[in-house]
Amino acid sequence: MTDYVGVLGKKAPxxxxxxxxxxxxLPTVYGKFQAVGYLDHDRGDEQVALVYGDIAxxxxxxxxxxxxxxxxxxxxxxxxxxxxxxxxxxxxxKEGSGxxxxxxxxxxxxxxxxxxxxxxxxxxxxxxxxxxxxxLGLPVDSRDYGVAAGIFHDLGVNSVRLMSNNPxxxxxxxxxxxxxxxxxxxxxxxxxxxxxxxxxxxxxxxxHLPHLxxxxxxx
Length: 219
Fold this sequence. Notes:
Strand order of the largest sheet: 3-4-5-7-6-8-9
EC number: 3.5.4.25
CATH class of the domain at 20-106 and 143-208: Alpha Beta
Shape: globular
Keywords: GTP-binding, Hydrolase, Metal-binding, Nucleotide-binding, Riboflavin biosynthesis, Zinc
CATH topology of the domain at 20-106 and 143-208: Rossmann fold
Largest sheet: 7 strands, mixed
Radius of gyration: 19 Å
Strand content: 15-25%
Order of helices and strands: EEEEEEHHEHHHHEHEH
CATH superfamily of the domain at 20-106 and 143-208: GTP cyclohydrolase II
Domain GTP cyclohydrolase II: 19-185
Number of helices: 8
Protein name: GTP cyclohydrolase-2
Helix content: 25-40%
Active site: 141, 143
């Protein structure tokens, strides 16, 4: 995009918000989605919403899924992200309609891939996920969900049923004018590799994870 226009060389106004760029069919192992691609002019990230079926304006089943390369692509058991993405996609297909917004730029709760790997190395030495970020001089959670709300506005969605265990997602959508009529738990059975991480999310990041009480035997 050109910054300067006209013979007087005046600077053109910078675009803000999200811009829909492309809509393409995306057949998957879950079902046939529409991949709606967006450009986030505020942060420079490319974003995508996976839309299934004919979505309405109200009470749409949705998931805001933060990018997690290790979990989503590599099947890491350090977190539950890959399983949550799988469960969310299956849920909207079962529902008959819904949206999964895949939020890029959210790796490691916003600190980026390499910093996340450094934090994971510190966790292997005994720090929890919050302590590891702070030891690196990084924020505990710097994710912003305004772009997701912008995508919902563009798709004509006024209210949602949000698949999430994280109260901050609900609060962010409400701040940006999206009503959350229901919070739908997205609980994944923990394993020995991620139980400490999940307990930290519950105890220090206020995630609603009541199912952890049933697995007290895991170390």
